[in-house]
Write a structure and sequence with these properties.
6-stranded antiparallel β-sheet, Serine Threonine Protein Phosphatase 5, Tetratricopeptide repeat, Glutamine Phosphoribosylpyrophosphate, subunit 1, domain 1, alpha+beta, 50% helix, 4-stranded antiparallel β-sheet
Length: 345
């Protein structure tokens, strides 16, 4: 039984991953895919304001935490890699990619990792993979990451898709993960998890990861950038542009989810930013779900943000026709009526 357990511990785990930093937003991220169960449970290690690590091949689970500890003490990515490999008893079985707090990148592919195995690095990004169809996997990932525009999460996911399209794991597909951290980037700023997505077991894990991300970015990523813009005045303009770009992207997409447009419209209306596009998002939500009282309330709030108080009152009354005892709707109506009265006097 002991022999069996040892063998199981050393099943080759082919993986392709990308580790990167966005110096403009101070975000660090890892995207990874593999023909193993729940690769997102094994490979990514990240800490906001410190760096990010991918630890794979015959993965030593200590390498990620060790590397982050060294980075937190001020070591460079290269210094941290050297230290953790010296501590490891089987460094030639490992594959590691690191990007530090300054965006310096480094990768290691041990000589005993299973072919094809290799890596590519550039400023702010490290790409690595093992048991791949060939070097075109990591080459494609790096090229796509460097030319893709948008937020770090989008660039990482696009690179992962490119790696899969180029051949990916030579054994097939099973799981994928996308994680991005940023100081106070988590839900309502409680933690640093700006994006936290993974596909544990799926016939098309990267495709499923994309499907999840398409919803996530509008429901959580855009509101996070809006909130952070208010908290960090020195980065306000840049973060607002990130949030606005996601709003425009949604409006230009073919997504038919009223919840997506409603969530975007609500967040932007509360911040009173970009009222024209906000109103379009609210109207799109209403078109997709014309009998939803909560969406009518959002539409009213969007009109209020656009200073069209008459329409705000109209749509709040429509919401109350459906839910006449809704206390929040009644409070909203009072707010809108007071605003309308003020401009009429």
């Amino acid at each position: 039984m002991l022999t069996i357990l040892i063998l199981l511990a050393y099943i080759p785990s082919g993986t392709f991953s990308i580790v990167a930093m966005d110096p403009e937003t101070n975000e660090w991220g890892v995207a990874v895919a593999s023909r193993v169960l729940d690769v997102g449970y094994i490979v990514p290690w990240l800490k906001a304001e410190v760096g990010a690590v991918a630890s794979q091949a015959y993965s030593n689970p200590y390498l990620g935490p060790w590397a982050l500890e060294e980075l937190a003490q001020g070591k460079s990515a290269e210094e941290a890699l050297k230290i953790i490999l010296e501590r490891d008893t089987m460094p030639e079985e490992r594959q590691v990619g690191i990007v530090d707090t300054e965006g310096r990148s480094v990768s290691h592919t041990g000589q005993s990792t299973n072919a094809w195995a290799g890596h590519r690095i550039a400023p702010y990004v490290a790409v690595q993979g093992n048991i791949l169809t060939g070097p075109e996997v990591v080459d494609s990932m790096l090229a796509v990451f460097q030319r893709t525009k948008g937020v770090l999460a989008e660039r990482l996911l696009s690179a992962l898709e490119a790696g899969e399209a180029a051949g990916g794991d030579s054994r097939g597909k099973q799981s994928a993960s996308l994680i991005v951290v940023r100081k106070r980037g988590g839900y309502q700023g409680v933690d640093d998890r700006l994006v936290d997505l993974k596909v544990v077991d799926n016939a098309e894990p990267v495709q499923e990861l994309r499907r999840q991300y398409e919803m996530w970015q509008y429901n959580f990523l855009s509101p996070a950038y809006l909130r952070l813009a208010l908290e960090e005045k020195d980065k306000e303009e840049m973060l607002l542009k990130k949030a606005y770009a996601l709003l425009v992207k949604a409006l230009e997409s073919e997504i038919e989810s009223p919840e997506v447009y409603n969530s975007l419209a609500w967040e932007f209306a509360l911040k009173k930013k970009y009222p024209e596009k906000t109103l379009k998002a609210a109207q799109r939500a209403h078109e997709l779900a014309p009998d939803d009282a909560n969406i009518m309330d959002t539409l009213a709030e969007a009109y209020y943000a656009a200073r069209n108080y008459e329409q705000a009152v109209y749509w709040e009354k429509k919401a109350l026709e459906i839910e006449p005892d809704n206390e929040f709707f009644n409070t909203q109506l009072k707010k809108f009526e007071e605003a309308l009265k003020a401009i009429e006097e």
